[in-house]
Amino acid sequence: MDSSSSPAPPQAPARSRGASNASQRWSILRRALLARSSSRVPERTSRDQDIKDEANNISRKASRGFNLIECHSLPISELTKSLENSSNGNESDLGCQKDVCVNYKLPCGGSSLNLVYRREDSLELNDMEASNRYNIDTTGLVCCWPSEEVLAYYCINHSDMFRAKKVLELGSGYGLAGLVIAACTNADEVVISDGNPQVVGYIQKNISINAETFGETKVKSMILHWDKEHASEMLNSFDIIVASDCTFFKQFHESLARTVKSLLKHSATSHAIFLSPKRGDSLDKFLETIKENGLNFESMENYDSTVWNLHKKYVAGDDRTWPNYDKEHCYPLLVRISSFC
Ligand SMILES: C[S@@+](CC[C@H](N)C(=O)[O-])C[C@H]1O[C@@H](n2cnc3c(N)ncnc32)[C@H](O)[C@@H]1O
Predict the structure, then answer these.
(1) What would the pLDDT profile of 243-269 be if each residue is shown by its tens digit?
(2) What's any GO biological process attached to this entry (predicted)?
(3) What is the C-alpha to C-alpha distance for residues 247 and 333, in angstroms, rounded to an integer?
(4) Which residues pair with 117 in a beta bridge?
(5) Does residue 113 sit in helix, strand or coil?
(6) Residue nearest to atom 4 of ligand 1 (CA)
């Protein structure tokens, strides 16, 4: 899934689709195993080529983002050093060779966040195995996608909305938006979730290393797969749900819509904010599913003048710093979902 890739594969009926997703993941794994156990590159069949194309569609990194929040990379060793005297400074928990750290300077109260990410192109066999075991893709490990930064920026600029609220981020990947909400707003509680347990390992790491930034806000990570039944204490409990770039997966549209419906507090002020590029017809299809589930939505193209002006410059070619910028895959629309009209 990248800025130049085509959207999700055509839909098959739910059962065979589950089987075909699994068999694709295993085939990718098989190729990786063969490549590892032999210096000879395994012979490639046309089926393998289809699978490779598919894998490229779902797992390639976006080349860059909107650069809305000032950030720079930090060697993991620096992070370890700066946390040496802190109670959270358990070195072994911080990160390893395959990780990098990015420091974000937040435009709120001079605070900053350190996020540990997987190094680019370091997807491993156990990632594929976990992906298969938990029926989940690996896009959360690939990078922080451009929409996530836009979501974080939007939340900073609308911080009042979160005051004293219970907030949930779905499919959060590394959790930038959830962490920003925890650091820059007076939310009561922020739950940062993803369905991929390995991704949630990173979310927890990122919560731990930034714990001192959250003030009174309670912050926790959670494995939350949209397809699974949700714990009864979660139902009807969140004032605000946020998500970025989660509508690409058509096989999960129904369960994602049901998750929003069942976890959102049933009140006139509760709502979900999704930032999602159109990615073919995937966003439109998701919005149809939202309606079918009895929820309402409004979708906005121009919701922030800074983001909109950057977008217009990339499209017009006036700013060439994002050369493969493609509106369909890079520009997130803002969708506001609620149970009430
Ligand atoms: C494209 S990534 C976006 C990650 C992050 N929000 C961002 O924009 O950087 C999609 C995320 O959704 C998660 N995801 C996909 N299917 C899911 C499901 N059925 N249940 C829960 N999470 C899911 C993936 O693990 C991944 O982290």
Answers:
(1) 999 999 999 999 999 999 999 999 999
(2) methylation
(3) 11
(4) 100
(5) strand
(6) 173
Helix (H, G, I), strand (E, B) or coil at 191: strand
Q: How far apart are CA 246 and CA 265, in angstroms?
A: 21
Query: How far is it, in rounded angstroms, from Cα 339 to Cα 260?
Result: 10
Distance 223 CA to ligand 1 centre (A): 11
Type of residue numbered 14: A
State how far the alpha carbon of 283 is from the alpha carbons of 86, 227, 277, 320, in Å. Answer: 43, 19, 7, 27
Pocket of ligand 1 from Cβ distances under 6 Å = 136-137, 139-140, 144-145, 147-148, 171-173, 194-196, 199, 225-227, 244-246, 249, 252
Tell me the sheet residues that pair with 334.
275, 300
- Mean model confidence pLDDT for the chain: 84
Contacting residues for 84 by C-beta, under 8 A, at least 6 apart = none
Q: How far is the CA of 247 from the centre of ligand 1 (A)?
A: 9
CA dihedral 141, 142, 148, 152 (to 10 degrees): 60
Contact between 235 and 263 (Cβ < 8 Å): yes
Residues 6+ apart with CB under 8 A from 152: 68, 69, 176, 177, 179, 180
Distance CA 102, CA 79 (A): 10
- Give 186-209 pLDDT, tens digit per residue: 999 999 999 999 999 999 999 999
pLDDT in tens, 50-93: 444 434 333 334 558 999 999 999 888 877 766 665 555 454 45
Pocket test residue of 148, 202, 246, 250 for ligand 1, highest count of atoms within 8 A of CB:
246
